[in-house]
Prior knowledge:
The protein is mostly helical and 273 residues long. It has one domain (21-28, 64-271). 59% of the residues lie in helices and 1% in strands. The chain contains ten helices and two strands, in the order H-H-E-H-H-E-H-H-H-H-H-H. It has a two-stranded parallel ribbon. The chain is globular.
Amino acid sequence: MMPGDPTHFHDGLRRLLMRGDLASKLAPLPPFAWDPDVERAAPTQPARDPGLEMGPGAAPLPRPGALEEPSARALCLARFAHHELQAVELFAFALLRWPDLDPGLQRGLLGILADEQRHAAGYLERLEAHGARFAQFAPHSDYFWRHAPALDRPAAFLAAMGLTLEQANLDFTLLYRDAFAAAGDLESAALCQTVHDDEVRHVGFAARALRQLDPEPEEIARYERAVPFPLSAARAKGRRFERAPRERAGLGDAFIEHVRTARSSQERGKLDP
């Protein structure tokens, strides 16, 4: 098949999802081609070989102050690599699920998918530098994929992935960048910064794409209408809230404040009489 063939492109997406080995999931995809009439066939779960299998629950992420220990750094790197791997798969899922999405938006999703592949490979390289193997942390948490059934339309996908999970990573990447640096692991700190810089672009893309799909003029209302339960603005932030990267991503002041002050249902329950 010639480069740019829609069948070639969509078969590449399916291989990424339905082959269980890491090399297939991180391999570059065929050139983009738009075909709004292609079959909407997106697996509800990705194939995973032994060592990549997923399951519910996971050990708590080490606190930043614990990263003096190499084992804590390795656990963080494995967890971050798997977040990125799930994102790779879910962006492939979205491209297969909505082949009639505007081709400009599809190109944007594909560019983010490639970034996520690069991030996953970077974290895995750092994990190996710590003398650890990704497989030893299996089963990996299926947290991202648990939300897949609720991603029933493009707006829900953008709100969940870009404006919730990736927005939260604007905070986590800087928090753990500083923690890796304090532990003397400057290479992992630099990788966190690289991922952070890409996440600013990803969040900005999601905000613009959601605005393109939904004419609602008010940013908070647009997000709240799209974000699928149980995700919410309370999950779109980390332990240390960072305003500046959200501003660089183009989020409005009111929406930034909405996220900063959002409380989860558990937090509301603790405070309510």
